[in-house]
C-alpha cells in the first residue's frame, strides 16, 4: 500500500464509516445500509472499491433474513504512521501478524527494560559524541526506532487479539439484529480513545437518550459495561431524573 492509495481511500467519509463498522464485526450489506442510513446501491460502490484494494473481503453466509448473502469483513491488520515535520515527511505501513505476539528484539520477555537501555545508550551516543558524523547519528537513531517499531508491533498485535476476543463476546451475548444498537454502543465505549460522553455516544450511534439509558442497562445486565460506561449511565440517569422534576 502506498500513501496515495491510502489517502485516496480514507479521504471519503463513507468508506471510513464502512471500515469502522466492519471492523467492529462482519456485516451484511443490508445491515450496513441500516446502520449508516444510506441505500444499498450507494454503499455497493464504496464496498467494491475497498474489495478491489484488498482492504475488505467477503464470504457467502446465510443471512438472518433470507438466502446466503455476502458477509463483509476486514482482510488486513495494519497500522499506519505518518511523520510530518519541517525537515521530513514519511508514510509507513506496518503489517500486524496476530499469530506472532512476541517481539523479535533480543529479550522478548522484558521489552520495556531493553528499550530503556537502548534509548539511554544509543541516543546518548548519537547526540553527545562529537566525533560521530551526521550519517552515523541518523543511523544510530534509526536503530532505536527499529526497536520501537518491533515493540509497537507486538503491543498492537496483542491489543488486536484482545479486542477480537472482546468483540466475539459482545457478539455472542448480544446476538441478532434486535441487539444491533446495543452492540454498537458496547463497541463505541470499549474502543473510544476520547472520554465517553452522552454527546459522543449520540453522535456515534444516533440514538435518543431514553434508548441509550436502556441499552446501558442491558449491557450492565450482561456484564458488558466497563467502569466508564457505568459512570456514563449514572450521570445520564441523574440528568434525566432532574429534567423530569
| Strand order in the largest sheet | 1-3-2
Query: How many separate domains?
Result: 3
Number of strands: 5
Shape: globular
Give the topology string: H per helix, E per strand. Answer: HHEHHEEEEHHHHHH
Helix content: 55-70%
- Range of strand content: 5-15%
Average pLDDT number: 83
Structural class of the helix and strand makeup?
A: alpha+beta
Distance between the termini: 57 Å
The largest sheet is: 3 strands, antiparallel
Determine the number of helices (DSSP H or I, runs of at least 4 residues).
10
Uncertain segments: 103-108
Measured on Cα atoms, how large is the radius of gyration? 23 Å
Q: What does this protein structure show overall?
A:
Helices cover 61% and strands 12% of the residues. It has three domains: 72 residues, Winged helix-like DNA-binding domain superfamily/Winged helix DNA-binding domain (Arc Repressor Mutant, subunit A); 87 residues, no CATH class; 70 residues, no CATH class. The strands form two sheets. It has a three-stranded antiparallel sheet with strand order 1-3-2. A two-stranded antiparallel sheet has the order 4-5. It is of the alpha+beta class and 245 residues long. About 2% of the residues have low confidence.
Amino acid at each position: 500500500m502506498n500513501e496515495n492509495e491510502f489517502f485516496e481511500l480514507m479521504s471519503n467519509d463513507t468508506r471510513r464509516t464502512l471500515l469502522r463498522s466492519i471492523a467492529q464485526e462482519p456485516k451484511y450489506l443490508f445491515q450496513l445500509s441500516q446502520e449508516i442510513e444510506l441505500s444499498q446501491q450507494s454503499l455497493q460502490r464504496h464496498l467494491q472499491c475497498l474489495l478491489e484494494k484488498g482492504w475488505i473481503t467477503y464470504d457467502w453466509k446465510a443471512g438472518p433474513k433470507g438466502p446466503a448473502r455476502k458477509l463483509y469483513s476486514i482482510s488486513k491488520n495494519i497500522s499506519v504512521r505518518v511523520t510530518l515535520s519541517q525537515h521530513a515527511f514519511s508514510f509507513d505501513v506496518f503489517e500486524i501478524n496476530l499469530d506472532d505476539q512476541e517481539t523479535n528484539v533480543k529479550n522478548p520477555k522484558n521489552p520495556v527494560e531493553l528499550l530503556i537501555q537502548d534509548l539511554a545508550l544509543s541516543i546518548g551516543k548519537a547526540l553527545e559524541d562529537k566525533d560521530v558524523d551526521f550519517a552515523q547519528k541518523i543511523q544510530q537513531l534509526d536503530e532505536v526506532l527499529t526497536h520501537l517499531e518491533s515493540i509497537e508491533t507486538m503491543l498492537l498485535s496483542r491489543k488486536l487479539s484482545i479486542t477480537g476476543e472482546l468483540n466475539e463476546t459482545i457478539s455472542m451475548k448480544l446476538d441478532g439484529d434486535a441487539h444491533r444498537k446495543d452492540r454498537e454502543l458496547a463497541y463505541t465505549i470499549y474502543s473510544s480513545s476520547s472520554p465517553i460522553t452522552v454527546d459522543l455516544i449520540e453522535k456515534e450511534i444516533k440514538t435518543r437518550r431514553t434508548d441509550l439509558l436502556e441499552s446501558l442497562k442491558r449491557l450492565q445486565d450482561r456484564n458488558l459495561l466497563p467502569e466508564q460506561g457505568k459512570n456514563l449511565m449514572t450521570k445520564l440517569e441523574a440528568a434525566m431524573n432532574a429534567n423530569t422534576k
